[in-house]
Q: What sequence folds into this?
């Protein structure tokens, strides 16, 4: 297990390095001089020169990259061009909303996706299976922002049951009732992704249910539910874990749009505002944070494989 | 002594016609086999027709303003209602079809042009593959919309070319990955070994033996790229960073309708339905093609 951990750990470092390199290279693609682009049209030549000096833009690209790398390692992502605050601070202020949204969406994914998949696998091509196939196909084809807007019209507009937009911090106010604002966004984001998890759970369960040890377990008279949960589900869980970790990327993508629909002050709406204002340091910071999170999620996924299936450790 | 054998490997003309007939028969069976696939193909063909016919079939001009008729619910004159400027929703949604399909084709074409050669070379030459796949993995660490948004910011103004580039660059690595893994398997296959033993050069192996066998996985991946990319383009337009707002697009219409969502939900309902139908039909056709062409590659959806 230790060797496994070390090997994966090295992979983690390499991936993070590559992610930083790519954000660096992308920012080199900005047409024109980065300093004047970043300072905007009203900058004086002196200001540009000062910024070029601070950023070391007069130095070779290789040296620039080294500075960039060491700044990132120290958590210094630069300053926002509009708020004139450190990027990391701005991102962390927005983090709470996004974490709550992700949490609620994941809850929906797990509580709908997995049971739906297991149910569908019990009787393949049965009534439940076919209904779920149609729902899953619809879920995979409906844009989450459209679903969000439609739910908003119905539940916030027509029925007036739930708040339509906005979110205030739970950590600051200590008011858990604010989670009401997350019901609609969490559902519209989660539902779309639950479809994929349901389909994976189904096919993975079907594979396992054909195995000999399931027949054995049934033959020795174990009750259906125990066979299903203890023998089948655990062995079917590896592909499911993979899909849940894939879901991370698609949840982040979806969250960008969903936060926008429901006017949630999270990282997703921050990146859209920053793109509209061409606030490059913030965009760069968000790209880095999200990609590193993704790499970490993959790392944790690998570890959980090793825990679910001891054979994997020795490969 | 080797030469005559090589000639036998080439397919003669009769064989080609026979094969062509076979393909046509296969396509027909494919289209009629399952109801869902048939429905998807019908939707797809109608969308193609709508895109081709363009302004010829829209009841009103897509940009025709009529302030006296603003925010009308669906009615006999305006079948799907009107928006805040009195523009006909049906006409706008229909005219958005052309731009959506054009963008989808350009983006999947871009991903294909980048992904096919790079993926093949990466799969065939180990050292090159190691470098390319590392970069591909790192690019894929950025969730699709985040990367597309950043690229839109870097490329500058909203515009059709920039959208194609931004979304294309997001999907090209995914295409590389599919081509790469298929090439890896093909490279080890017996017929490639046989060709090499006969003294066939690397270029010829890549073009005549590998590329031909990549057709099925690539077609399947192209349909999925298409479905995902039109969804992503719609998201960019919805966020106001895609194509310029004056061009009627499904995402853009939904963005404009947000202010009036309680009073006039139809502004958003119908463009979204068009989008969902388009994505659904491409996904279904992709699924069916995959099952047909390559049963081993069955995905979970």
A:
């Amino acid at each position: 297990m230790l060797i496994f951990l070390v090997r994966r750990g090295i992979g983690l470092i390499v991936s993070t390095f590559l992610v930083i390199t790519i954000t660096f290279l992308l920012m080199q693609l900005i047409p024109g001089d980065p300093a004047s682009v970043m300072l905007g049209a009203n900058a004086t030549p002196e200001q540009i020169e000062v910024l070029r000096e601070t950023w070391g833009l007069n130095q070779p690209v290789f040296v620039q990259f080294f500075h960039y790398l060491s700044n990132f390692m120290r958590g210094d992502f630069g300053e926002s061009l509009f708020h004139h605050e450190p990027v990391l601070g701005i991102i962390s202020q927005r983090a709470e909303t996004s974490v709550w949204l992700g949490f609620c969406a994941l809850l929906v994914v797990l509580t709908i996706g997995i049971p739906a998949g297991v149910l569908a696998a019990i009787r393949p091509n049965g009534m439940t299976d076919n209904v779920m196939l149609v729902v899953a196909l619809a879920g995979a084809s409906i844009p989450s922002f459209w679903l969000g807007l439609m739910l908003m019209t119905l539940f916030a507009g027509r029925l007036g049951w739930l708040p339509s937009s906005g979110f205030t911090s739970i950590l600051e106010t200590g008011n858990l009732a604010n989670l009401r604002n997350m019901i609609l966004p969490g559902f519209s984001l989660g539902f779309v992704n639950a479809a994929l998890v349901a389909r994976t759970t189904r096919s993975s369960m079907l594979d396992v249910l054909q195995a000999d040890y399931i027949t054995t377990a049934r033959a020795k008279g174990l009750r259906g539910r125990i066979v299903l949960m203890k023998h089948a589900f655990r062995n079917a869980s590896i592909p499911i874990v993979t899909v849940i970790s894939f879901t991370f990327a698609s949840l982040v993508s979806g969250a960008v749009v969903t936060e926008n629909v429901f006017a949630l002050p999270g990282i997703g709406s921050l990146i859209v505002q920053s793109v509209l204002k061409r606030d490059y340091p913030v965009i760069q910071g968000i790209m880095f944070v999200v990609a590193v999170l993704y790499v970490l999620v993959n790392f944790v996924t690998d570890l959980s494989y090793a825990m679910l299936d001891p054979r994997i450790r020795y490969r | 002594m080797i030469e005559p054998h090589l000639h036998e490997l080439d397919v003669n003309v009769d064989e080609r016609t026979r094969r062509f007939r076979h393909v046509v028969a296969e396509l027909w069976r494919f289209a009629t086999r399952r109801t869902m696939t048939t429905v998807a193909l019908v939707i797809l063909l109608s969308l193609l027709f709508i895109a081709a016919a363009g302004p010829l079939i829209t009841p009103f001009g897509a940009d025709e303003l009529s302030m006296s008729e603003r925010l009308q619910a669906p009615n006999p004159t305006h079948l799907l209602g009107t928006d805040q400027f009195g523009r006909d929703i049906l006409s706008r949604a229909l005219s958005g079809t052309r731009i959506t399909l054009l963008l989808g084709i350009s983006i999947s074409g871009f991903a294909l042009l980048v992904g096919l050669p790079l993926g093949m070379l990466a799969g065939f030459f180990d050292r090159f593959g190691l470098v390319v796949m590392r970069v591909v993995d790192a690019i894929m660490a950025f969730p699709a919309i985040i990367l597309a948004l950043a690229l839109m910011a870097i490329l500058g103004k909203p515009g059709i070319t920039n959208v194609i580039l931004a979304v294309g660059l997001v999907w090209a690595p995914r295409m590389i990955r599919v081509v790469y893994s298929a090439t890896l398997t093909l490279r080890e296959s017996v017929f490639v070994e046989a060709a090499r033993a006969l003294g066939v050069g690397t270029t010829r192996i890549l073009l005549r033996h590998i590329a031909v066998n990549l057709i099925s996985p690539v077609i399947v991946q192209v349909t999925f790229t298409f479905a995902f990319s039109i969804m992503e383009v719609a998201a960019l337009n919805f966020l106001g960073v895609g194509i310029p707002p004056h061009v009627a697009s499904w995402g853009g219409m939904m963005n404009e309708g947000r202010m009036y969502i309680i009073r006039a939900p139809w502004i958003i309902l119908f463009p979204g339905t068009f989008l969902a139908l388009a994505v659904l039909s491409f996904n279904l056709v992709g699924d069916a093609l995959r099952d047909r062409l390559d049963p081993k590659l069955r995905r979970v959806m």
